[in-house]
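Methods — Computational structure assignment.
A single polypeptide chain was analysed. Its primary sequence is given first, followed by the predicted tertiary structure written as C-alpha coordinates.
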Amino acid sequence: MNTILSNLKIQVNEKIYVKDPETSALGKKIIEQSILLIDEIGFDNFTFKKLGEKIGSNESSLYRYFENKHKLLVYLSSWYWSWMEYKLVFATTNITDPKEKLRNAITIVTEKVIDDSSTEHINEAILNKIIIAEFTKTLHTKEVGQENKEGFFLIYKRVINRIVNIVTEVNPSYVYAKSLVSTIVEGSLHQHFLTEHFTNITDCNSSKSTTEFYLHLIENVLR
Protein backbone atom coordinates (compact mmCIF):
# COMPACT_ATOMS: atom_id res chain seq x y z
CA MET A 1 0.00 0.00 0.00
CA ASN A 2 2.91 2.38 0.67
CA THR A 3 3.86 2.22 -3.01
CA ILE A 4 0.32 3.17 -4.04
CA LEU A 5 0.15 6.01 -1.53
CA SER A 6 3.46 7.42 -2.73
CA ASN A 7 1.90 7.96 -6.16
CA LEU A 8 -1.15 9.78 -4.79
CA LYS A 9 -1.41 13.44 -3.92
CA ILE A 10 -3.28 14.15 -0.72
CA GLN A 11 -6.03 16.64 -1.52
CA VAL A 12 -6.75 19.52 0.86
CA ASN A 13 -9.33 22.27 0.34
CA GLU A 14 -7.45 25.17 -1.29
CA LYS A 15 -9.40 27.69 0.81
CA ILE A 16 -7.51 26.51 3.88
CA TYR A 17 -4.13 27.77 2.72
CA VAL A 18 -2.80 30.89 0.98
CA LYS A 19 -0.21 28.90 -0.99
CA ASP A 20 -0.15 25.11 -1.28
CA PRO A 21 2.76 24.01 0.97
CA GLU A 22 3.24 20.88 -1.15
CA THR A 23 4.47 23.03 -4.05
CA SER A 24 7.78 24.14 -2.52
CA ALA A 25 10.63 22.96 -0.32
CA LEU A 26 9.86 25.68 2.23
CA GLY A 27 6.19 24.72 2.32
CA LYS A 28 7.03 21.07 2.99
CA LYS A 29 9.49 22.15 5.68
CA ILE A 30 6.76 24.23 7.32
CA ILE A 31 4.48 21.19 7.45
CA GLU A 32 7.20 18.83 8.63
CA GLN A 33 8.52 21.08 11.40
CA SER A 34 5.12 22.39 12.52
CA ILE A 35 4.09 18.80 13.28
CA LEU A 36 7.22 18.26 15.36
CA LEU A 37 6.90 21.60 17.17
CA ILE A 38 3.18 21.24 17.97
CA ASP A 39 3.89 17.77 19.34
CA GLU A 40 6.73 19.18 21.44
CA ILE A 41 5.08 22.26 22.96
CA GLY A 42 1.35 21.86 22.23
CA PHE A 43 -0.86 23.89 19.92
CA ASP A 44 -1.71 26.56 22.49
CA ASN A 45 1.98 27.44 22.90
CA PHE A 46 2.74 27.12 19.20
CA THR A 47 3.33 30.35 17.23
CA PHE A 48 4.57 31.18 13.76
CA LYS A 49 7.42 33.10 15.40
CA LYS A 50 8.60 29.95 17.18
CA LEU A 51 8.21 27.90 14.00
CA GLY A 52 10.15 30.48 12.00
CA GLU A 53 13.00 30.33 14.50
CA LYS A 54 12.97 26.53 14.33
CA ILE A 55 13.24 26.38 10.54
CA GLY A 56 15.46 29.46 10.15
CA SER A 57 12.90 31.46 8.20
CA ASN A 58 11.26 34.84 8.63
CA GLU A 59 7.87 34.71 10.36
CA SER A 60 6.42 36.66 7.43
CA SER A 61 7.31 33.84 5.02
CA LEU A 62 5.00 31.49 6.93
CA TYR A 63 2.06 33.83 6.39
CA ARG A 64 2.56 33.39 2.66
CA TYR A 65 1.32 29.84 3.17
CA PHE A 66 -1.20 30.11 6.02
CA GLU A 67 -3.30 33.01 7.25
CA ASN A 68 -2.94 31.92 10.89
CA LYS A 69 -2.08 28.92 13.05
CA HIS A 70 -5.72 27.80 13.16
CA LYS A 71 -5.71 27.37 9.38
CA LEU A 72 -2.45 25.43 9.69
CA LEU A 73 -4.05 23.05 12.21
CA VAL A 74 -7.08 22.64 9.93
CA TYR A 75 -4.68 21.86 7.08
CA LEU A 76 -2.86 19.22 9.13
CA SER A 77 -6.20 17.70 10.17
CA SER A 78 -7.48 17.66 6.59
CA TRP A 79 -4.27 16.06 5.40
CA TYR A 80 -4.58 13.40 8.10
CA TRP A 81 -8.18 12.52 7.30
CA SER A 82 -7.42 12.43 3.57
CA TRP A 83 -4.58 10.00 4.28
CA MET A 84 -6.98 7.98 6.43
CA GLU A 85 -9.49 7.92 3.60
CA TYR A 86 -6.94 6.43 1.21
CA LYS A 87 -6.10 3.75 3.77
CA LEU A 88 -9.79 3.09 4.32
CA VAL A 89 -10.49 2.67 0.61
CA PHE A 90 -7.58 0.28 0.10
CA ALA A 91 -8.58 -1.77 3.16
CA THR A 92 -12.17 -2.26 2.00
CA THR A 93 -11.96 -2.46 -1.80
CA ASN A 94 -12.80 -5.83 -3.39
CA ILE A 95 -14.13 -7.26 -0.13
CA THR A 96 -17.59 -8.72 -0.63
CA ASP A 97 -18.44 -9.63 2.96
CA PRO A 98 -19.88 -6.46 4.59
CA LYS A 99 -18.91 -7.61 8.09
CA GLU A 100 -15.29 -8.13 7.10
CA LYS A 101 -15.32 -4.81 5.29
CA LEU A 102 -16.65 -3.10 8.44
CA ARG A 103 -14.05 -4.76 10.67
CA ASN A 104 -11.32 -3.51 8.34
CA ALA A 105 -12.77 0.02 8.32
CA ILE A 106 -13.09 0.20 12.11
CA THR A 107 -9.54 -1.09 12.48
CA ILE A 108 -8.17 1.59 10.16
CA VAL A 109 -9.74 4.52 12.03
CA THR A 110 -9.10 3.24 15.57
CA GLU A 111 -5.72 1.49 15.49
CA LYS A 112 -2.43 2.97 16.65
CA VAL A 113 -0.85 4.83 13.72
CA ILE A 114 2.67 4.12 12.53
CA ASP A 115 4.72 6.36 10.28
CA ASP A 116 4.25 5.91 6.53
CA SER A 117 7.71 5.98 4.96
CA SER A 118 6.28 6.99 1.56
CA THR A 119 5.62 10.53 2.87
CA GLU A 120 9.08 11.75 3.76
CA HIS A 121 8.16 15.18 5.17
CA ILE A 122 5.20 14.01 7.28
CA ASN A 123 5.47 11.68 10.24
CA GLU A 124 1.96 10.22 10.48
CA ALA A 125 2.58 8.68 13.90
CA ILE A 126 3.37 12.10 15.37
CA LEU A 127 0.57 13.73 13.37
CA ASN A 128 -1.80 11.17 14.87
CA LYS A 129 -0.72 12.29 18.35
CA ILE A 130 -1.62 15.86 17.36
CA ILE A 131 -5.01 14.78 16.03
CA ILE A 132 -5.69 12.93 19.28
CA ALA A 133 -4.76 15.97 21.40
CA GLU A 134 -5.82 18.89 19.22
CA PHE A 135 -8.41 17.91 16.58
CA THR A 136 -11.40 19.21 18.54
CA LYS A 137 -9.82 22.68 18.43
CA THR A 138 -10.47 22.78 14.69
CA LEU A 139 -14.18 22.19 15.35
CA HIS A 140 -14.96 24.05 18.57
CA THR A 141 -14.67 27.59 17.25
CA LYS A 142 -17.09 30.42 16.52
CA GLU A 143 -16.20 30.14 12.82
CA VAL A 144 -16.95 26.43 12.46
CA GLY A 145 -20.32 27.01 10.76
CA GLN A 146 -18.83 29.15 8.01
CA GLU A 147 -15.78 26.92 7.66
CA ASN A 148 -18.05 23.92 7.32
CA LYS A 149 -19.99 25.67 4.55
CA GLU A 150 -16.69 26.34 2.76
CA GLY A 151 -15.84 22.63 2.87
CA PHE A 152 -13.04 22.67 5.45
CA PHE A 153 -14.28 19.44 7.02
CA LEU A 154 -15.48 17.67 3.89
CA ILE A 155 -12.82 14.96 4.02
CA TYR A 156 -13.46 14.22 7.71
CA LYS A 157 -17.18 13.88 7.02
CA ARG A 158 -16.46 11.74 3.96
CA VAL A 159 -14.45 9.29 6.07
CA ILE A 160 -17.37 8.95 8.47
CA ASN A 161 -19.94 8.54 5.70
CA ARG A 162 -17.88 5.86 3.96
CA ILE A 163 -18.09 3.79 7.13
CA VAL A 164 -21.78 4.67 7.54
CA ASN A 165 -22.43 3.11 4.14
CA ILE A 166 -20.72 -0.09 5.27
CA VAL A 167 -22.75 -0.17 8.50
CA THR A 168 -25.88 0.09 6.37
CA GLU A 169 -24.69 -2.87 4.31
CA VAL A 170 -24.27 -4.91 7.48
CA ASN A 171 -27.59 -3.92 9.00
CA PRO A 172 -29.94 -1.85 6.78
CA SER A 173 -32.50 -1.55 9.58
CA TYR A 174 -30.14 0.13 12.04
CA VAL A 175 -31.31 3.75 12.27
CA TYR A 176 -28.38 5.32 14.13
CA ALA A 177 -25.56 4.56 11.70
CA LYS A 178 -24.24 8.13 11.48
CA SER A 179 -24.32 8.65 15.23
CA LEU A 180 -22.64 5.30 15.79
CA VAL A 181 -19.81 5.90 13.32
CA SER A 182 -19.12 9.51 14.33
CA THR A 183 -19.01 8.32 17.95
CA ILE A 184 -16.50 5.61 17.05
CA VAL A 185 -14.25 7.86 14.96
CA GLU A 186 -14.06 10.69 17.47
CA GLY A 187 -14.41 8.41 20.49
CA SER A 188 -11.36 6.42 19.44
CA LEU A 189 -9.28 9.60 19.58
CA HIS A 190 -10.58 10.19 23.10
CA GLN A 191 -9.80 6.61 24.16
CA HIS A 192 -6.24 6.94 22.88
CA PHE A 193 -5.97 10.16 24.90
CA LEU A 194 -7.27 8.44 28.04
CA THR A 195 -4.90 5.51 27.53
CA GLU A 196 -2.02 7.97 27.49
CA HIS A 197 -3.11 10.29 30.30
CA PHE A 198 -6.04 8.89 32.36
CA THR A 199 -5.55 5.15 32.55
CA ASN A 200 -7.90 4.75 35.53
CA ILE A 201 -10.99 5.74 33.50
CA THR A 202 -10.52 3.52 30.44
CA ASP A 203 -10.27 -0.22 29.92
CA CYS A 204 -8.06 0.26 26.85
CA ASN A 205 -4.38 -0.47 27.39
CA SER A 206 -1.46 -2.40 25.91
CA SER A 207 -3.30 -5.71 26.28
CA LYS A 208 -6.81 -4.50 25.35
CA SER A 209 -6.57 -2.06 22.47
CA THR A 210 -8.93 0.72 21.45
CA THR A 211 -9.56 -1.18 18.23
CA GLU A 212 -10.61 -4.31 20.13
CA PHE A 213 -13.06 -2.24 22.17
CA TYR A 214 -14.74 -0.70 19.12
CA LEU A 215 -14.85 -3.98 17.20
CA HIS A 216 -16.58 -5.51 20.23
CA LEU A 217 -18.94 -2.54 20.46
CA ILE A 218 -20.01 -2.53 16.83
CA GLU A 219 -20.46 -6.30 16.72
CA ASN A 220 -22.84 -6.15 19.66
CA VAL A 221 -24.69 -3.04 18.49
CA LEU A 222 -25.34 -4.42 15.00
CA ARG A 223 -26.09 -7.98 16.14
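Note: The first helix runs from residue 2 to 6.
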